[in-house]
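ok so for the tutorial part 2 we go from a plain amino acid sequence to predicted structure tokens. step 1 is just haveing the sequence, like this:
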Amino acid sequence: MQIKDMFRKKIDREIQGVIIVGQGEETNVAQELEEYVVTRELQRHFADFFAAYKKGIQGTTPKMGVWISGFFGSGKSHFLKILSYLLQNKQVGDKHAIDYFIEDQKITNQMVLADMQLAANTPSDVILFNIDSKSDSNGKENKDAIVNVFLKVFNEMQGFCGSMPHLADLERRLSEEGRFEEFKEKFEEEYGDPWESSRQDFDFIQDSVVDVLSDMDFMSESAARNWCEKATEGYQISIEDFAKRVKSYIEKKGNNHHVVFLVDEIGQYIGDDSKLMLNLQTVTEELGKECMGKAWVIVTSQQDIDSITKVKGNDFSKIQGRFDTRLSLSSANVDAVIKKRILDKTETAAQSLRLLYDQKATIIKNLIVFNDSVEKKLYANAEDFAEVYPFVPYQFNLLASVLTSIRTHGASGKHLSEGERSMLALFKESAMQLMDDEMGAIVPFYRFYDALENFLDHSHSSVIIRAYDNSYINPEKKEKDVFAINVLKTLFLIKYVLEIEANVDNIVSLMITSIDDDRISLKAQVEDALKVLMRQMLIQKNGSIYVFLTDEEQEINNEIEKENVEMPEVITKIAEMIYEDIFSSKKYQYPSFGGRYAFSFNQAVDDRPYKANQNYDIGLRVLTPWYEGGTDDGTLRLLSGQGKEVLVVLPNDDAFLTEMRAYLKIERFLRKNTSVQLAKYETIKEAKRVEMRERNGNAKLYLTEALKEATIYVNGDVLHTSGKEVTSRINEAIGRLVQTVYHKLSYIDAAMGEADIRKMFKTSNQLSLALGDTGESNVHALDDVLQFVAGNSRMHMKTSMKTIKDRFMKAPYGFVEDDIHWLVARLFKRGDLSFTVNGESVNLNNRSEEEIIGYITKKQFVDKLLTEVRVRVPENQKKAVRTVMKELFKVAPPADDEDTIMKNFQHYCENRITEIERLEP
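step 2 — the prediction. this is what the tokens look like for a chain of 921 residues:
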């Protein structure tokens, strides 16, 4: 079955798919009313509107403002036009507008129908207009622009001159005195042409007007001449006077007469202009106050009034009270209308489609998939498939967003902004392109571009037009249906839409043309097309997202591409990202002793050190896909073993490098005083700033993923770890390297500090051992320090504290200063080392304990404190001193080191001499 045979009504029939307020032929009105679909949502809106309108018929009300909102293409203008037919009780042939609603049971609620009938029976002047088209070209600059447009259409409704309010006042005066027809007849006799066709050229017909007015005795010649001179001057009318003029007109008409102003696209006209918003507020307020429900203002806007006042602030909160009735048209309204007016199927077709879906439901679900965060409606069931076919449910909402975004970003020409492309028309024309295809074909999203093309801004359509002449894109010179160009059309349509990401998988889903498509094959085609389009610079890739480029954007991109960014700049930026952001640790914290040991490491990317003057024992080197050294497994194992560094080898995917290079090119371009002069340049520059941030974010994202997947070499072997987190993987690798390089760090089995040194100097060795000490702490470290100093001593060299620190704070030890201070103090206290400061021997006999501790720990003595192996006093000499002290002084020395013994011996000797001297006469 061909698609064209599925529909109840011919798909190629003429329908008014677009509603242009203020235009339209009478012949279309019957079809408009007959085919108008009242959805559940519209049932409520009709009920709300006519319930409010009834208050002005049965009594008085100041609440006579109606605000109709909805996105572009949602049917606001159509709804407004239908209201105008109902309110003026428009007659089409032998039927009135309301008869279509009654006979077709468009409205099911009898109370609502009664309210509609009441409104239709109430005499009304209905003034339907698009405010932008009725406004003067410089009208918006006038703070009273809206009241002037209202006056213009009010005058036109009465048959008076709209463009020249001075003339309208004359015509009104003539009409009130019953002489307007007489004036028109005499003017035609005098001038030769009818008044209505001549009055626009008032500057050229002033003499005739003066003659006619004086001949009629309506004015004297001088008064008429004076009036003509004033008529060419500016016209001012206050909003209050306008409201009174409308009130006066209503009262003269009598019989509960109403005047209804139906204003299309007020939101677009007002924009961000606070003066126009206040002007609309005041006009509505004054009409409500003066006419009390006999004059109504009904407006449409893309924006809901709440969102406008929220943006504008408290100044505009009052306007919400002026538009008490608010009706919002949603996308559900459009779905239902299109299904009813365009896609309604015959029973046979619907049954065939339901059967087809039941057979291929799983295939269809796997064929059309989207992988971003915003929901895209797909077929819910067989019934839904039959109703929407040959379209896909997501296309309703997405196309609505496309139209709104195109308009918002200025990508549409004037006709599109006036609403000449409705959703209805786009769906109808897109379906017509497939009408000869067999059942199973699906409308791909790019088909909507063809229906829009003639209404688009040149900077967008010209890109696609030129693509047809590009032999790389269209080698066969086809006039239509070029796959790569269809991809380009798709990317244009979703360029400004936030609801969908233009990644490969989503583009493939948008390109589906049949439920029998092979998605894998189609994806390959799409990827090839994207590569061609990128090479021709019609699109660009930001991370995983593809972006359509306008003419201006292409020109800017060409300028950016000319910027020269060298590879070392990219690597430097990548290094900064790694070592300042992703893996920002500057030191490896050794797990023992609560983080006492922290090892700095050299940082490098490829062959470039991240910072100058790095000279640590260990290093971390990240190798990118741009690294030109050997990257085979054997070479890397050898490097990691010999170089005392961890090698992090990134996968062979340079996406993060490409993104970073793009970031740097844009950054350099924006810094320069560019010669590119374009009308939209500032907007594009701002977009490039946003893109620059996105590129940087993409580079970081891809780099982080690459680091997670990297192969890590340490100690000549590949690190095998179950974790994927970057920091933990690298830390584990550096930890293993530390254990290898600083293999003598384990010599420290007890963490000592300055407090321990003080305690040691106050405690004798004998006492310490007497308390059951199990043995010397850090014994291996003490041995190595002693051997180092002894080696120098054998060569008759003294060893400074600085030299000891330089030796033992580096590999293979990695001790900290506190360790070394304690080790030197311990060796001194044990009597293994002797000290010299400024050439003078230092010991406990000539310096206090506090002074000696200062020499060891304070930085100012690090070069001055010299050590050497102490020549031990023979044990028999120490024994002789002890014997003398015991026999002479009756005491035993408390310590075992010679300095302490000597100090004590001297102390007792001095005391004994003092006693002897005291006994002398």
